């Protein structure tokens, strides 16, 4: 078994945690988090709710741990709870889809930073056939994604077949039959992946995919697999595929993302300076020692325990779950919340008998002027991983960025000097122009994260000012970073035949260059909300229809550019557009991320969101509410 599997807590640690030992509980949660994250992330196929479901799982682990009868069965119990939370999420999603018919794209938008197939390839450095297996998992039937999340971990040595069976409530023999069927689906998808990537490719395959939108699905897997099976050229490509089991053996768990793991101490790290949840226990009361009113223990330095950071991190896309099911420290208010009994709680986990005093907490983050009761600064909730903003430095930029609730940001460079990244948000680097393609800048970009934005408005003399040939010549150096690359972001005309971007994409395909997503800018000159939103949507659709790749809209606002200077709408018009536009963007499944232009609001930058770290403009308040 891999070292990651052995890192799960031993029986003695689980027993101590059951009996109210706060240090043991902290270690149990920290050791469990990687396994829970890997199961949920793969089962949810990279949906933006991954972090929330991980959080809900850990809440239930903490609540029901005192009722666990057999500490030796902790891992099987943990896996079963995790799968239960995944299924509950699927049920809620189906209800939401039925309620919001016509807006189902909103509930199916993946968080690109949580794409487990892509992240497995990037973070574990998979090559060749292992990469093909990871890509093939995107084509599975939805019902098989839960099974995949556990089978993958079984093959990598993290869990056993019996634990997989226990999680689904099936016999090992029944699970074996389901796994065999799923492996056959992955095998056929591997043939499809290899055929689609072949250069030169099968000419007949192009005709089969003429109406395909480029999104992997079980329906298209069946259609394309039928062609691969019957085509002599494509079938020959799959003749050298190795068994999947051999390819997955020995792979480690996927590392935690920064938003979940950056602040977590190691399992063996001392927890003496931690805040802890005073857990009720059937046999032993809360840990001894003075605690402030409400049962919250704190340390002199205001540190946070793994329990607090893992369970009480700001929730992202599931605000209804703020009334969840556990008693825990709330990071923003430092109050204890006792939540109602969970009607969907597993029958084998009776709720603890003791209940601390309930303290009501506000349902929204306090205003910037509110004084927090903790020594730690108040960090507003990130409302969406898709929502971003362009940032250039100004007084109060870090606080403004945190107050904006943006899930990501960029600075038109590979660094963010003087700007702190809020907890839960991510920084995306950019190679702005040809002069930035240096070994130092490329190394910084590679270290900054899995995504890389590239040449900013190369079609404008005052921006990157590059020819298509110059960009294509430099592109291999960007590919060498291993990052997922956005196309150069042209100022306009992205879908135009023989336009700058069209010639770049044609040249990239001819040279075998990789472009992972299209980056766009759009500024509306018509300040009528309905017209502007319709124009933006038409532009995005035209670009997607031409290139069939995911889109990042990294600059957009209402600004009318002209020889006499830029003209701006009123704050009310800009705010109305932002609200309507972001609602529209949420319906586009191919629109992965967007970023408003920009964070600071000055006499020159009147589309901005904040005048300083605390004072949001009318547009800024609309942005805070946007998803």
TrEMBL record:
Domain Asl1-like glycosyl hydrolase catalytic: 401-621
Molecular function GO terms recorded: DNA binding; hydrolase activity; sigma factor activity
Renumbered residue ranges of the record's region Disordered: 347-378
InterPro entries per UniProt: ASL1, Asl1_glyco_hydro_catalytic, GH, RNA_pol_sigma-70_dom, RNA_pol_sigma70_ECF_CS, RNA_pol_sigma70_r2, RNA_pol_sigma_r2, RNA_pol_sigma_r3/r4-like
Record-annotated membrane-spanning stretches: none
Keyword Cell membrane attached: no
GO aspect biological process, one term: fungal-type cell wall polysaccharide metabolic process
Keywords: DNA-binding, Hydrolase, Sigma factor, Transcription, Transcription regulation
Domain RNA polymerase sigma-70 region, residue spans: 29-93
Keyword Hydrolase: yes
Pfam families per record: Glyco_hydro_cc, Sigma70_r2
UniProt family annotation: Belongs to the sigma-70 factor family. ECF subfamily.
NCBIfam families: sigma70-ECF
Full protein name: RNA polymerase sigma factor
């Amino acid at each position: 078994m891999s070292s990651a599997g052995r890192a799960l807590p031993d029986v003695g640690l689980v027993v101590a945690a059951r009996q109210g030992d706060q240090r043991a509980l902290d270690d149990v949660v920290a050791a469990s988090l990687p396994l829970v994250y890997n199961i949920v992330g793969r089962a949810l196929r990279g949906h933006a709710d991954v972090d929330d479901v991980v959080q809900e799982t850990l809440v239930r682990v903490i609540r029901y741990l005192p009722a666990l009868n057999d500490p030796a069965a902790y891992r099987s119990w943990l896996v079963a709870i995790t799968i239960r939370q995944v299924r509950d999420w699927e049920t809620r999603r189906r209800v939401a889809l039925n309620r919001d018919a016509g807006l189902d794209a909103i509930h199916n938008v993946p968080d690109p930073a949580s794409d487990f197939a892509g992240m497995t390839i990037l973070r574990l450095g998979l090559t060749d056939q292992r990469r093909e297996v990871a890509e093939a998992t995107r084509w599975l039937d939805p019902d098989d994604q839960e099974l995949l999340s556990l089978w993958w971990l079984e093959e990598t040595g993290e869990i056993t077949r019996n634990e997989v069976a226990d999680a689904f409530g099936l016999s090992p023999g029944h699970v074996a039959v389901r796994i065999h069927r799923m492996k056959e689906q992955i095998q056929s998808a591997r043939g499809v992946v290899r055929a689609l990537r072949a250069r030169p490719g099968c000419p007949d395959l192009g005709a089969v995919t003429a109406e395909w939108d480029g999104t992997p699905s079980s329906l298209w897997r069946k259609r394309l697999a039928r062609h691969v099976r019957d085509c002599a050229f494509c079938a020959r490509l799959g003749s050298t595929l190795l068994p999947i089991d051999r390819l997955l053996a020995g792979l480690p768990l996927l590392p935690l993302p920064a938003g979940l793991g950056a602040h977590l101490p190691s399992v063996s790290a001392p927890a003496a300076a931690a805040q802890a949840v005073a857990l009720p226990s059937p046999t032993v009361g809360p840990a001894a020692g003075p605690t402030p009113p409400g049962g919250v223990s704190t340390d002199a330095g205001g540190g946070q325990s793994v329990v607090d950071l893992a369970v009480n991190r700001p929730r992202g896309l599931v605000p209804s779950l703020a009334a969840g099911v556990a008693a825990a420290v709330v990071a923003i208010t430092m109050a204890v919340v006792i939540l109602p009994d969970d009607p969907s709680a597993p029958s084998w986990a009776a709720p603890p008998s003791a209940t601390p005093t309930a303290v009501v907490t506000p349902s929204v983050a306090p205003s910037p002027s509110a004084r927090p009761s903790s020594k730690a600064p108040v960090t507003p909730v990130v409302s969406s991983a898709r929502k971003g903003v362009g940032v250039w430095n100004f007084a109060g930029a870090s606080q403004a960025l945190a107050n904006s609730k943006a899930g990501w940001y960029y600075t038109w460079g590979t660094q963010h000097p003087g700007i702190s990244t809020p907890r839960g948000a991510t920084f995306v680097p950019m190679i702005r122009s040809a002069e930035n393609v240096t070994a130092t800048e490329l190394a910084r970009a590679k270290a900054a994260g899995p995504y890389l934005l590239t040449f900013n408005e190369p079609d404008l003399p005052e921006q990157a000012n590059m020819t298509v040939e110059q960009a294509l010549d430099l592109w291999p150096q960007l590919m060498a970073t291993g990052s997922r690359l956005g196309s150069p972001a042209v100022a306009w005309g992205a879908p135009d035949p023989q336009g700058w971007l069209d010639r770049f994409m044609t040249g990239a395909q001819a040279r075998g260059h990789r472009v992972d997503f299209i980056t766009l800018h759009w500024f509306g000159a018509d300040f009528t909300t309905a017209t502007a939103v319709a124009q933006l949507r038409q532009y995005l659709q035209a670009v997607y229809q031409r290139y069939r790749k995911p889109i990042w809209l990294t600059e957009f606002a209402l600004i009318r550019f002209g020889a006499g200077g830029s003209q701006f709408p009123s704050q009310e018009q800009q705010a109305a557009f932002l609200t309507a536009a972001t609602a529209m963007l949420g319906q586009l499944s191919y629109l992965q991320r967007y970023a408003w232009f920009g964070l600071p609001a000055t006499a020159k930058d009147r589309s901005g969101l904040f005048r300083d770290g605390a004072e949001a403009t009318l547009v800024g308040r609309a942005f805070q509410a946007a998803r």
